[in-house]
Amino acid sequence: MAVRGLLLYSAFALAFVGIGVLSYDRPTARGSYFVSLPETFDSTSPQQVHISLVGNDKMRISWITEDQTPSTVQYGTSPGKYESSATGNSSSYKYLLYKSGEIHDVVIGPLKPNTVYYYLCGVGSAPEYSFKTPPAQFPINFAVVGDLGQTEWTNSTLQHMAKSNYDMLLLPGDLSYADTVQSLWDSFGRMVEPLASQMPWMVTQGNHEVEKIPIIHSHSFTSYNARWHMPFEESGSGSNLFYSFEVAGVHVIMLGSYTDFDPSSAQYKWLQSDLQKVDRVKTPWLVVLIHAPWYNSNTAHQGERESIDMKAAMEELLYEARVDLVFAGHVHAYERFARVYKEQANNCGPVHITIGDGGNREGLANDYIDPQPKISVFREASFGHGQFEVVNATYARWAWHRNDDNESVMADSVWLTSLASDPT
Length: 424
Ligand SMILES: *[C@@H]1O[C@H](CO)[C@@H](O)[C@H](O)[C@H]1NC(C)=O
Ligand SMILES: *[C@@H]1O[C@H](CO)[C@@H](O)[C@H](O)[C@H]1NC(C)=O
Ligand SMILES: *[C@@H]1O[C@H](CO)[C@@H](O)[C@H](O)[C@H]1NC(C)=O
Ligand SMILES: *[C@@H]1O[C@H](CO)[C@@H](O)[C@H](O)[C@H]1NC(C)=O
Ligand SMILES: [Fe+2]
Description:
Pfam families: Metallophos, Metallophos_C, Pur_ac_phosph_N. By secondary structure, this protein is an alpha+beta fold.
């Protein structure tokens, strides 16, 4: 789409997306990106490659081609030698006047842990990609970042994460900020490919993924569900909007802030049964991701039902299950709380962390409520990302890295003890 057309279309689309979002003043962000296809690309070349963990030893490979091609992945543990192959399927979707390319979805495995695999997206296609599977045991290192977008700040964040040697990325919602302009989903796919094709990216959705326009496009999450298929079937969930998985002794639950969460909802019932299945001997660490934070002392995004009502419905379930950590996004800043339950410090409650500072074009949320509540330990409105390094069954280190100009600087860090190892 021509740039002018794209801008007009954005303005039109944003008018709808803005509905229901509280407004506040944000400083200007750095410039936005549009990552185009290289001119040499042909219509069967793979693009927007990203991978996600399926079960404990399989990987979903996702990529897009302009034309229909076979959905086959060839792979192996040495470059140029592909002893194995797997075939999946492809689909496409329509959104107003836009028609997506063929979105290929192939699950490969079983795979060995902590091993580099080389793969091709399509029989005999180029280029060769590679990824590393996560370890089967501790230690494991997660990168955590929300509200990523596609600006120069996003680029800094991605570059810093790339240097951090992470095993898996966890993203608590708001990916592309396409906001109904579907070509921006393609641009986002190209922007994250260098990282997302090498390590599993496990994501949940935010408000920017809803993309429902009254009357004109009445379905929610059309693009998100088509492009970012997460392993919900394997965790007994009926929806791509909430699921769980286990990796190296960590049970991760991805919740959906923008789908029903009241006690009669499918999500609530699924969460109840998923928590019952958690074995803290096998997975001593229990982590939850949501988009809209339940604890937040920034003036941005106060009073939204996705925060208040979801917390009222589900906080007790997480508390009773002794969840260690809750990561959220949505507020474009960083904030770490003490262990909390029902607004009070509580040694059996989860640590809540807002990490919505990936680098999106809306800028930072600079204004905080004064005085700082006692339960809020550290808060700062800067772009950056987090690292959650689980050392063993008992100890993990959380560190927040700020994008200082273009340097990554560790600005907050804390050692955490798993609640599974605490008999109280
Ligand atoms: C693709 O394959 C998956 C798993 O086999 C299946 O659930 C899904 O319905 C298939 N999609 C299409 C469009 O055939
Ligand atoms: C991100 O920054 C790097 C280094 O500054 C640059 O080489 C790269 O082209 C940038 N990425 C995009 C998508 O512009
Ligand atoms: C876990 O890691 C911590 C920090 O490195 C260390 O002090 C402790 O001894 C380890 N515990 C076990 C059981 O390995
Ligand atoms: C940081 O990177 C941006 C984008 O690549 C560049 O425009 C800027 O000059 C850099 N700033 C510093 C202080 O290096
Ligand atoms: Fe958001």
